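During the reporting period the student researcher (J.K.) took over the structure-prediction task from the postdoctoral fellow and processed the backlog of single-chain submissions. One of the processed entries is reproduced below for the supervisory committee.
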Amino acid sequence: MVTIKQLEHTKSLTKSATPEQLKCSFICFQGVKTLNYCLGNQSFFDNTSFVEPSGVPEDLSLLDALLLAQWEERMWRGCFRYDVTASEIKVISGGKKFLAQLNEKWIMDPFILNSIDQNEELLFCVTRSEKANSELIPSAAVPTDSILVIINANPIEYGHVFVVPCGSNRLYPDARSFEMIVRIAFEINNYSIRLFYDCSSPGASHVYFQACYFPDHLPVELMPIDTFFSEGQRGIYISTLIDYPIKTILFEYTYNNRIIMMAAISEICSSLREKNISYNLLISDCGKRIFLFLQKSAISGNLLAWECGGYFLFGSKYEFDQVTEEAIHKRLSAVSLNDEGFQVVKQLCCSIASKLAV
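J.K. obtained the following structure tokens:
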């Protein structure tokens, strides 16, 4: 069982679906009844009563317990293609402590929402509530603006799911959807969970995130940082990672200013898409730290978000045994945005954050 754990501190962008197709793809869920987790508004919006997660092991939160129970129930039903808990994992020798998993059965299938088995693969949905406290409704229709939580039949780690915003018809995470995703991370309140987003997902029907539990830090989370934007009164900080092979920006903020930060990151993602810059996101620390990985565009072999974070899967025992830190470093460096492009993105982040933090 995963427990709460405190952390220390392709190709060109996918255009496989139009906004109209994104909206229509959710028609198959109209009238479907499932578990509804309704997010209360008090804990997330009441700045005076808000208390940040402590990271001290306690009882599971309601949403954490729901996710784990539903995922484990599907595991016992045989809904996954393999038992991911049986996979061998090792720390690659070297200073960066990159992680390698031997998984000879993992494949990356395109995520197509219309092909989902609603009875087997849909675990529950998350929606907003006008009530102060969050609550679980045992059976209710899927709201049009909810977040769907769906199993990934090819898991890379424990609890691996797709987290799919229903209400957005954009080709990138809008501010509202992004805020909901971060709220889910906050409500789960488990420092072992990470959420990922890949802007370049070949064959995907629309925007989606992924989430799963990691028992230890991802290598990127342990890297030293250099802060280049600080709005102290607002509690917003933007930094670069020092000596990491792929260009990475880290967003940190106090929860009282999460709405501003979510709007800023969404606008940054939109601008990156317009500039045809490929990127990935990693959400950690219960939503308090968000890593933006910047890759070259229009290249083959773009990396996934967990790979950018230092977690790699290998399909053969030979590759798994032979991998070195130098080889991983080269893979990350090969796809990284160049220095000139990185400076442009840093200026963009400062400009958008300054505008919204006024």
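The committee noted the following: Residues 1-22, 45-57 have pLDDT under 50 and may be disordered.
J.K. will present the remaining backlog at the next meeting.
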